[in-house]
Amino acid sequence: MSEQPRDRLVKLLRRRRVVELRDLFEALGTRSRMTVFRRLREVAYRTSFTPRGQYYTLAEFPQLDEWGLWFHRDIGFSRSGTLKETIAVQAEQVPDGRTHGELSHLLGVRAHNPLLELVHEGRIDRERYRAQHLYVSADADRAAEQVRQRLAGERALARTLREPTLEETLEILGEALGCAGEIPSPLEVVRALAARGVAVEPRLVRSVYEAREGVHVCLAGCRQPSGSKVTRRAACLADSLPPGQTVGYDVMVLAGLQRFVHHRQREEVREALRAEHGVDISTGEVSIPQRRFVLYLQRLHAARRDANRQAFARDGGWPLQIEATGEGGRGTLLIAYAGWRRWVLGSWQIPTENADAIVPCLRQVAAAFGPPVAVVRDLGRAMTPAVLALVDESSAGRRRLSAPPARGPACSRPPRPDRLRSAVRAGGAHPALAGQPVRPATRRTAPGSQDRRPQPANPRAGHDDPARAGPSGSA
User: Fold this and answer.
1) What burial class does residue 97 get, using C-beta atoms within 10 Å of its C-beta: 0-12 exposed, 13-18 middle, 19+ buried?
2) To 10 degrees, the CA torsion angle through 438, 443, 449, 452?
3) pLDDT tens, residue by residue, 209-220
């Protein structure tokens, strides 16, 4: 049964999301525009307002924003349909009107011609505003209100962007430097000044707290071996501010802990930075100190390698615990712990859980912190050959793994399960179990019944007293 034209059309739009008219011609097997639009009318669809209605999509796809717009890459779709209608709605409904620059930035196209057409048709109006035109509603009362809203918004923005006066700066510095111990947060300074009858905004306190650094450049034009200019920074800022950054190490640590220890999202991290440090950064910028936190933590971990190794030596050794967890199609996360202290010694993203990928990671841990006294692993099949490969690679590592830990009772290396199983089945005992008391295994039988288990002829090896040996075959 051949596929219906409507089904082919819907299938194409759902697969490609946004298509051109030529794609519709090919899918429907026609060159007639009337046929294509007749088929489009059978489904709910939208036409792009840029560029010139050349693209089509199903009406179910666009997630329209507050202005009724949706963009797929640089292709725009509007609730109003065409570019001209979209501009008319913007000029009419936006509380403070729109300038041509704002419309061009919002829509991604030049809007001169549609604006002039709308003005000549009397559908919108324009007012002279600061050496440019403000496009507003055609209704006079509505237009006057839009102009008032524009002026009020500019005044509020000017108040927001103003710098603190000299008197406000002196009050802020006096309150901050007069506190014993650490410098208070901007919110604490605001509360303290309010108690004295001085009203300042937290933003003004933060602007006083912001450091302004002058970097000195060599006048002779000297350059570093890398080619960069020779510069000198302020020593007091170099200790607290990473090179090329606008936030200090304390902000980096707080952002990293909030993200990777407390599992907070970016907006939650921004709120914590604003509340505890008075630092207001954008959602995109907050990811930068988080990434730097991981890099600095990695370097600190490597720098503290010798101290960690000495701590393990004082403990009498360290057991290695390794775990691997699938990342839902993004490979496998392998983590190595120091068992007693629960310290993470290393973590790696490996493509899959196999011995060839695990062994290099174990080598890296053993080289950094010394061979472990024991290994605890999960039940993954690749873990056993990986651990055995690590043990067999060096005789020193083998001796350390077989030696008893200093903090525990003396014990010999436990036998391998396969060898122990073979020895028990043969009726004997593994040499590692020789001389150890074994509790007899018990078996419940019904009253009057007999134990029909076969009894081996040879008694258990390693027990001089037959009474202690227990039933043959117990382990």
Assistant:
1) buried
2) -60
3) 766 667 788 888
3-class SS letters over 141-192: HHHHHHHHHHHHHHHHHHHHHCCCCHHHHHHHHHHHHCCCCCCCCHHHHHHH
Q: Which residue has the higher pLDDT, 138 or 463?
A: 138
For residue 14, the SS3 value is helix
User: Which among 453, 397, 448, 445 has a CA at the least distance from the CA of 427?
Assistant: 453
pLDDT winner (highest mean) among 20-24, 54-58, 86-90: 86-90
The whole-angstrom separation of Cα 33 and Cα 352 is 52
Which of 50, 81, 46 has the alpha carbon at shortest distance from 60? 46
Identify the band that residue 470 occupies on the pLDDT scale cut at 50, 70 and 90. very low
Question: How far apart are alpha carbons 302 and 297 in whole angstroms?
Answer: 9
Q: Which residues contact 327 (CB under 8 A, 6 or more apart)?
A: 333, 349
The dihedral region occupied by 221, where left means phi > 0, alpha psi between -120 and 50, and beta the remainder, is: left
- Tell me the pLDDT of the chain averaged across its residues: 77
Q: What is the mean pLDDT of residues 446-472?
A: 43
